[in-house]
Amino acid sequence: MDKRAFLKTSGMVIASNLLPDLASAQTSRKNWAGNYEYKAEHLQVPGNTGAVQRAVKKAKKAKALGSRHSFNNIADTAQDQISLQKQNDISLNQDLHQVQVTAGVAYGKLAPYLHQRGFAVHNLASLPHISIAGACATGTHGSGNRLGNLSTAVTGLEMVTHDGEIVRLSRDKDGDQFDGVVVALGALGVVTRVTLNVEKTFEVRQDVYQDLPFSQLEKNLETIFSSGYSVSLFTDWQDQKASQVWIKRRMDQEVKELGPEFYGAKKATRKLHPLTDHSAENCTEQLGVAGPWYERLPHFKMDFTPSSGEELQSEYFVPRNRAYEAIRAIETLKAQVVPYLFISELRTIAADRFWMSPCYQRDSLAIHFTWKPHGEEVKRLLPVIEEKLAPFEAKPHWAKLFAMSRSRFEQLYPKLPDFQRLMKLYDPIEKFRNEYLERNIITS
After folding, report:
1. Residues 206 and 285 sit within 8 Å (Cβ to Cβ)
2. Distance in angstroms (rounded) separating the CA atoms of residues 33 and 311
3. pLDDT in tens, 329-373
4. Does domain 90-200 have CATH number 3.40.50.10090?
5. pTM for the whole thing?
6. Would you say 212 and 265 are in contact if contact means Cβ atoms under 8 Å apart?
7. What pLDDT band is residue 127 in, cutting at 50, 70 and 90?
8. What is the dihedral of CA 168, 174, 178, 179, to 10 degrees?
9. What residue spans define the domains of the chain?
10. 249-258: per-residue pLDDT in tens?
11. Which of 56, 277, 328, 436 is most buried, with most CB under 10 Å away?
């Protein structure tokens, strides 16, 4: 597929900002990217929590299915996939600054609802079309030196366990165990409700600069990534530079003009797509024009949705204090990477306390790869990338493509034994165990 086709898959207009009806969208039983075909025998689409309980209790094997944005088999199972797409309730508690959503709600629905009522969540991913429950369960993130991933907003959740019973946990009353349950990879049960902390709504301006030399990152990486509330660097690894720097700044905080030059990069004079030669029509507003948080923090507009993402994705998290070394290490692989790459994105994420989060107790830089749909070639390339990043204790995004072994995860995740004990506690009959968990998580 050429770049023109990629542009189409990055922003096809539909009438709603919600995903299409899952039952009809999955006639081919594939994920959003089309690279994985689900093996589950049945797709259940229960209309309420009681129906979820009955479906889980009846199933021999079960797995929750979100917005299908995972690029691997994390959400697959031998028997029953349970989609929460029909459950789209939102309840805002303005006094507590909390919002409770059922598991089918996507950020694209929640964000305008909150903004209209004067509230916001702390951050958003580059695509707003993903489900909240799925994003939090996999440690999905946005960008920002001081901003944790999306799951750090979670203050409570409700899930249906193997016997169809409901378990409710909260940050306040369940302490350390709660930290093991939030980023749970679908291993403990079917999450049916999530409660998030919210804050007062705010506006953001977005400025873009072009051609930042990588040499500037050696001494100035922290300053560059702290120049905005959320900062992203895009690169194709070919010219020792970031082709674009997207700087998103809150208007309720001190905002100074950055000037026509930013660490050797020149201020863009027109709106840009991450692939510079593409139309930016489907991208969020730039050129310093302020607007609501949810119309600036994502890279793509909410009324455009990737209806078939003819691309593949991988992402690796490295310690932020070794980020420059890791970037340079990947740069040495450019001859192997470039033929299969659309674009890479570099983002920073603050440390969190969730046991299975790639950012557990570690401020991180994420190195993201958006690949052309060359599955076999990418599959062969991933071990090469992982070997190059091994000295930096790189951790892959759980929902994207990786080749890392279970033995390596045992080294990288000190709380893995505790998480395995949680699996036995909440799922003693192994109803939610699947091939993904057996390959990556389960050691006995």
Report:
1. yes
2. 6
3. 999 999 999 999 999 999 999 999 999 999 999 999 999 999 999
4. no
5. 0.93
6. yes
7. confident
8. 170
9. 90-200, 204-396
10. 999 987 888 9
11. 56
